[in-house]
Amino acid sequence: MPRPTWTTVTPILAALLLAATWGRHPGGVVVVLVALFLIGAVLAAVHHAEVVAHRVGEPLGSLVLAVAVTVIEVALIVTLMVTADKDVSGLARDTVFAAVMISVNGIVGLSLLVSALKHHLAVFNPEGTGSALATVVTLAAVCLVLPSFTTSQPGPVFTGAQLTFAAVASLVLYGMFVFTQTIRHRDFFLPVDRAGDTIKPTDHVDLDDDGHADPPDNRTTALSAGLLVVSLVAVVGLAKIVSPTIEDGVAALGFPNAVVGVVIALLVLLPESIAAVRAAAREKVQVSLNLAFGSAMASIGLTIPTIAVASIWLDGPLALGLDNVQMVLLFMTVVVGILTVVPGRAKPLQGGVHLVLLAAFIFLTIAP
């Protein structure tokens, strides 16, 4: 029997720690221990996601991590909305918007910057990336912008019929994109070389640069898939455990409570961020962009329909509409994203522009 590695043991220990601390408010040494296992679970999640991705190939591999993280993120949002004592009418909106900004500006910007600095230019397929960006923009407009302009109900909220339409439209659009990405036009979402030609995956391609050309066997893949789920549950759960400590720190600094949501979103998206940067460093920028836009798309396309169903049992309004500052940041993100995607290649400057937009979002959340 092979000796257990840290990537096998860490998710299990993190899950046990989550079970032992769930529903409590630990302090001191326990919080530090939770934070350490949170980081370990993030690194383990990245490892197991890459194993699964190596087996199933791109672009399905990128979809695995994006959807897995988003499903658990949605479960966390619904749990908080059901159990919270304070006003949570804007929780879904704030969380989804933070995830979109972190994905489209943070993950994209960092990936482009790393690849362009290391390889002179970051090269990707504009056809696949452009369709992903278009889908994200449409989902964001329908679910997060339109509620601020509809007049059937006061406030940035949808009526029941409008929310149902947005939920159904989100699911349909997300389903169409997944079909396009994984079946109909799969080649558009595969990495490309410096000449712009698609790099076809084969059984002898070392996708994770680990020195082993052959993909893992079914048993190893199944084990990694299971440990990936355990790792992601631990990441989200442990992030929730440390959130009271984060809330206390945010309050002590005099920052708005919305900053807590940004910090939690950063923690939850950390596995995807690390995986994307590692792919970019290996000159597989398309994999990074698949992860980034896939995360943003899944955050809207899966969260809004789930919240729409959950709102049947939730009391109070569901505020989905963005405020003026958020809409300006979204508009700038869309314009910059289009200019980045169209050429199919990017210099370090483009990565820096996206990162500045993320910094503006975080700063204006702290100092609105």
From TrEMBL:
Species of origin reads: Nocardioides currus
Q: Does the keyword Transcription regulation apply?
A: no
Entry GO MF terms: potassium:proton antiporter activity; sodium:proton antiporter activity
The protein's location, in the record's own words, is:
Membrane
Q: Name one GO cellular component term.
A: plasma membrane
What is the protein's given name? Ionic transporter y4hA
Question: Which taxonomic lineage does the organism of this UniProt entry have?
Answer: Bacteria, Bacillati, Actinomycetota, Actinomycetes, Propionibacteriales
Q: How does it sit in the membrane?
A: Multi-pass membrane protein
Q: Where are the transmembrane segments?
A: 33-53, 60-84, 96-117, 129-149, 161-179, 222-243, 249-270, 291-313, 325-342, 349-367
* Chief localisation class: membrane
Report domain Sodium/calcium exchanger membrane region positions: 29-182, 224-366
Keyword annotations: Membrane, Transmembrane, Transmembrane helix
**Pfam families of this UniProt entry?**
Na_Ca_ex
